[in-house]
Amino acid sequence: MAGGPNSWTATLHAGQIRLPNNEVIHAQVTSFASSDGRNGFFVMSTPSVWRAGHVDGGAIGLEAMMVAVLLHEGSHVAQIPTYGNRMESLSKRHHLPESFNDDSIQERFAGNAEFARSVDRETSLLLTAAGSATSAEALKLARQARALMLERQQRWFAGPDAYFAEAEDIWLTMEGSAQWAGYRWLIDPHGGQVNTSVATAAFGGRGKWWSQKEGFALFLLLDRLTEGKWKRHAFGDGALTGLEMLDQAIGVSAARPDSESTK
What's the pLDDT tens digit per position in 32-49? Predict the structure, then answer.
């Protein structure tokens, strides 16, 4: 309850956990957000479980990393009524399997070297733009990144795969803003007190998943271009996605390949 006392309950288990949506999972290293159809929730195992699973947190340490992960998943809970519902609608329109998630596009195209190179280049340009010395340089690099992304989407997200363009935008929005939230706590002098470059390498842009790395780069850039105004959408009304906000900020008009699906 907002502003009220915290309420904690504990229940012994025998290796399996029943979630609020009645799904049963094994007690293991995990963190994810979900919904029971009415309320969002997130699941995260305790530090002792992560240690037993040989997760050490790298340069930022286990406890700091877990706080950042907790903030990431908590962000998703706030986004379930907005972007989560939008993804659910897209999934129903295109009869996607329940297994379709933020990594599905990468799993589909990871073997495509041209596709993967474009994603890497886009991500690099977004990160460089976010840290550029001048606003003019930031805009120039941001437009280059967006042009590459549009070219990739128009080439590969065509025909029956056109819906991937909308899906990618939603996943970049959710994963990128959630990564930003964890990263911001890590570098906050009243939070994790982690060096910016260390936090970027060890959390913000860590791992192998495109949606998290490119999404994080996107929101670092949006934070610069919009002076933080993106938060009212990403963590609030969900009226605009990350790429829609970027297009507004850099003056680009982008027609989605799957534009018919959004009508």
Answer: 999 998 899 999 999 999
